[in-house]
Specification:
Shape: globular
Radius of gyration: 25 Å
Structural class: alpha+beta
Number of helices: 20
Number of strands: 19
Helix content: 40-55%
Length: 652
């Protein structure tokens, strides 16, 4: 049975349960056992099987099985371990306890004991070990990819985070800011893509430790293709163009010639100027097919299937592009407005791919298609681009005249036009309604940053995480809730992320004692330090592959597989327990991306009652982007700011 299960794992799609945030942006947001692709198929020569939504002429490969050999170094990176079962179950109860009443905790404690004693736990652990033996990468990878591809919810807000880049400074003051910034970004994309392909990308490291770099293979030239029931990820290794969306029109722009020489910046600027002019003077508006990429994935899959026979060349061009460049005509005034435009703009978008969005004044951001890689990977590109800007080292220039573009078009048969227009209107209205319901607050906290926090002799990240706990405790009338922070597991071969459980028994004690008039300052500081130390130890366990969430996720998915395959098999009660669902609800979904190479980043909440909190720190300040569907983002942000001040004042 075990061998049969492990083989079928890659052929059937486990049902998604909300046991992890959809985002796992940071690995410094939630939501990749390589889905649908058996270990024996892990080869750069494996072509994608026929897909009803994939145009045949293109040479496409499975994004999850494609690899550049120079990015794969299993000898340098250990495999992700499977933690001891007893350890994971003990830690599960430890992090669950502050979230429950004593009666609720004892019920779940009984279920955990029964799970250990009746043999289910050991059988599932053996299944996981067998899966690990059969996978060339890890026991987790296919299961994690499946979770993303099985999602039927719209990608924007739910899956795709955003980044706001720093303003671009160019020595040529007469250069059109939108065109100059767009050409700069696309030139960097082309250069970075070539570095990935030819193996000249510098090795990622943390201190002296090398990080796994396999995610870079899917950074550019990939597309998430909607398929009913389960999407596909395609990789186009030979991509040499980008797709530009301007004023609702689509253009295919070559950025590399046949010898992989990059089109010069001056020529790129000329071509982008012509593209923008063509789009603005066009008398015939194109149908806004891109709006469908913000739809439910099954609905979009059905519509794409209808469109494909008449629009193969256009779909080919978009799917196989290195990336999508958006030239927006809207001009946001504030950074908050720019953030919303990049995060969930409705016009000029194609959410099945990562998008670089540039406004008329040259302000820019990235909307990240998150399925195949995490934020750390994208931020390496952002760092590269900003350094290029600083050095004014534009790129290796090709001969003049080698760049070219062509306008793409959409054909809708006359008999389908009414229904297609209705689909587009419905998708747009639905997306706008969700975006309007999303409340967001962005705050620069300038009173202190990492430098002063270090003076308190605590981890800056732990300091901020405990401020979140105190802030929520205050606004909720004394509650502690499921809290997620992303941890990078790139120390391991094909590592992704693990969940740092910031809410702990120690954090609960800290929040209870902090506003008590009966507690002394010394007692409050001691409780705070203990909570911070617990957070640091949890983070270290996660980074060393000894976290709780991914292990439970794997066991749960294997139990679901057993239920599908074996008549009469019942999923263990530990996984049907309402407290298990609550444990993974992640009311507070947080991610720390502290880098000087961007201004803001954010993502949506993963629970309708919860908050999404993107934050970063410099030596002297912090920036937060908080999202919520109940109109409480400003309330919570004010509570966070007050908690930061109050905790810091303990040490004054």
């Amino acid at each position: 049975q075990t061998m049969f299960l492990t083989k079928r794992l890659f052929q059937q799609s486990p049902q998604f349960t909300n046991n992890a945030p959809i985002h796992s942006f940071n690995a410094t947001i939630p939501q990749f056992a390589r889905s649908n692709f058996s270990a024996k198929h892990f080869s750069s020569k494996t072509s994608v099987a026929a897909n009803p939504n994939t145009a045949a002429p293109l040479i496409a490969k499975n994004a999850f099985s494609f690899t550049y050999p120079h990015l794969e170094n299993p000898q340098s990176h250990p495999r992700l371990p499977i933690p001891p079962l007893s350890q994971t179950l003990s830690q599960y109860l430890f992090y669950l306890k502050p979230l429950l009443s004593q009666e609720e905790y004892e019920k779940t404690e009984t279920l955990v004991s029964r799970f250990q004693e009746d043999g289910d736990a050991k059988a599932l652990q053996r299944d996981l070990q067998k899966l690990d033996e059969e996978s060339k990468t890890s026991w987790l990878e296919g299961l994690w990819d499946s979770m993303y591809l099985d999602l039927r919810c719209p990608l924007p807000i739910n899956v795709s985070p955003f980044i706001i880049l720093h303003d671009w400074k160019d020595s040529n003051a007469s250069l059109d800011p939108q065109i100059g910034r767009a050409a700069n970004l696309i030139g960097s994309v082309a250069r970075f893509h070539l570095m990935i392909q030819n193996g000249t990308l510098p090795q990622d490291r943390v201190g002296k430790n090398e990080l796994d770099m396999s995610q870079y293979r899917t950074l550019f030239g990939t597309a998430r293709i909607p398929v009913k029931g389960r999407d596909t990820m395609l990789k186009y290794p030979e991509a040499k163009h980008v797709v530009v969306i301007s004023n609702g029109h689509y253009f295919k722009l070559s950025v590399l010639n046949q010898d992989d020489k990059i089109v010069s910046q001056s020529e790129m600027q000329t071509l982008l100027t012509q593209i923008r002019e063509d789009s603005l003077k066009s008398a015939d508006p194109e149908p806004q097919i891109g709006a469908m990429t913000s739809e439910d994935r099954d609905i979009w899959a059905e519509v794409r299937q209808k469109l494909l026979p008449h629009n193969r060349d256009t779909f080919d061009a978009i799917d196989s592009a290195l990336t999508v460049l958006v030239l927006d005509q809207e001009e946001p005034v504030t950074l908050s407005e720019l953030s919303r435009q990049v995060f969930h703009g409705a016009q000029n978008r194609w959410y099945d791919k990562t998008q670089f969005i540039v406004t008329k004044s040259g302000k820019s951001g990235i909307n990240m298609e998150h399925t195949a890689y995490d934020g750390h990977t994208l931020l390496t590109f952002v760092h590269f681009n900003r350094n290029v800007d600083k050095e004014n080292d534009v790129q290796t220039e090709s001969s003049e005249g080698e760049g070219q573009y062509e306008q793409l078009s959409w054909t809708i048969p006359e008999e389908s036009q009414t229904s297609m227009m209705s689909d587009i209107v419905n998708a747009t209205e639905k997306h706008n309604a969700i975006a309007s319901a999303l409340d967001s607050s962005m705050v620069y906290f300038k009173e202190f940053g990492a430098q002063k926090i270090k003076g308190c002799k605590v981890s800056p990240d732990a300091f901020v995480q405990m401020a979140y706990q105190l802030a929520f405790y205050r606004i909720s009338g004394g509650k502690t809730v499921s809290t997620y922070e992303s941890a990078n597991t790139k120390f391991f071969f094909h590592g992704r992320t693990e969940t740092v459980r910031s809410a702990s028994p120690s954090s609960r004690v800290f929040t209870e004692i902090f506003d008590s008039q009966l507690a002394s300052t010394e007692q409050k500081i001691a409780a705070f330090r203990e909570a911070c130390e617990q957070h640091v130890q949890t983070l270290k366990k996660c980074q060393s592959g000894q976290g709780v969430d991914r292990h439970l996720f794997g066991l749960n998915k294997l139990s679901q597989q057993r239920q599908q395959l074996f008549s009469g098999y019942e999923i263990p009660e530990i996984f049907t327990d309402k407290n298990f669902t609550m444990f993974g609800s992640n009311i507070l979904s947080t991610s720390n991306v502290s880098t000087p190479d961007m201004q803001v980043f954010g993502f949506g909440p993963v629970h309708m009652d919860g908050f999404g909190i993107g934050y970063s720190m410099t030596a002297n300040d912090m920036v937060f982007y908080v999202t919520n569907y109940e109109g409480r983002s400003e309330l919570f942000m004010d509570a966070i700011a007050k908690a930061l001040r109050d905790i810091y004042n303990l040490f004054e």
